[in-house]
Amino acid sequence: MSTANADSDMGRLRWRCRRGLKELDVLLLPFLETAYAGLSPALQNDFAALIAEEDVDLLDWLVNGLPAPVTYAAILGHLLPRPACV
Q: Which one of 30, 52, 75, 76 is CB 3.0 to 4.6 Å from 46, fit for a cystine?
């Protein structure tokens, strides 16, 4: 992937991480900035899919501790210090 494409992709991801809910912003943006680049391509895709979910679902899974779909187990294992999947 070219640097221009990578920069464009990071810009889109950064925009998607800015949810307007402080609880989500403090989890998603720092993760994107510090850990995303070190993820495998599969986990990067999982992160992109995760942040495409609705705010209410993300809030439940990431903040309120409700179980998330098992398809997000791997990325949530990197994003959260505790298990959040069924």
A: 75
